[in-house]
Amino acid sequence: MPRKGQKLKTRKPAAVKPAGSRKREIDPLGHLALTQYMEAHFEWMLITGYSRDTVRARRIAIRRFIVWCDERGIAQPADITKPVLERYQRHLFYYRKPDGAPLTLGSQHGALAPLKTWFKWLARQNHLLYNPASELDLPKIPKRLPRAILSVQEVEAILAEADAATPYGLRDRAMLELLYSTGLRRMEIAGLALYDVDSNRRLVFVRVGKGAKDRVVPVGKRALAWLDRYLFESRPQLLAVPHEALFITDYGEPVSPAFVADRVKRYMDFAEVKKPGATHLLRHAMATHMLEAGADVRVLQALLGHANLNTTEIYTHVSIDHLRAIHDATHPARLTLPEETPIKPAPGLRATAAAQFLDALAAEEDAVADSLA
Question: What domains sit in the chain, N to C, each tagged with a CATH number?
Fold first, then answer.
């Protein structure tokens, strides 16, 4: 029976299992000399320890540059000079998407940064006499407010939409709870194995996360309870062939990052939460809610797996309630006199940080948005 005031929703059926692997298509850029140098560069990256995800992202950026060069008759690395790269940078700045929108500065930065690494490698391998990109100025990514922040009520509404009465809904509820409890990235959730969860110590081991780094993340009791229920009730019904993946699809196969993002977006639609984003919103909400409840920013740095504290500040902001309290207590144009109780700094933050507003949700959020576009 529906709850009082609840709108009945028509849930879409499960997606049809995709067809088998397609035939390998011929690369239209494979005959170009620049493409051969690009492939050699990627081989070097893999040999020296770069992840395949990093190579995949840089391939998109460099191939875009190669197409631009081919249209202008630029065939060899030696033909590429600093003025050529500056022309390409202007091309990115004035480029317009099919909907007429320009590329964000974050997208422009993401298209140019791999070129600097590529040309640095070309110069070191003596394919070039000098590095034309060594003095190329990359776009400065602006600091701006986050596009969307989920409230605690919105998160709870999203989690409640997963129907735990079915094996699929129970799996999705456990996955959503784990995402919100730990703040893991979608690729990290998809890569979890059974032995990565320590129920006794309430820990999740993230192996080879972003930057090929391992870390240990505590998991809440509620999320662990849902996860234990999924492992005993749902996973055995979904499992087709024995394997060690923690979360599996409706067909018993390991979930992919795209599958995780699709499920989150699906339940956001059911809960009528109309905000851009999916998995990243739960990660941002986890950090924001913990910060407002008193967590220290360096604790969040460890939980989120950031090597640099500046990166963690992307996900954190001063509580708007605290800012409102300071405004009411100190602004001279107020309706009533302030209470005598002094305003204390926001929990977990330095006093100076209380005067700062939302920091930039720049690099990682833009990368997530571009990958989902």
Answer: 33-124 (1.10.150.130), 152-281 (1.10.443.10), 284-372 (no CATH)
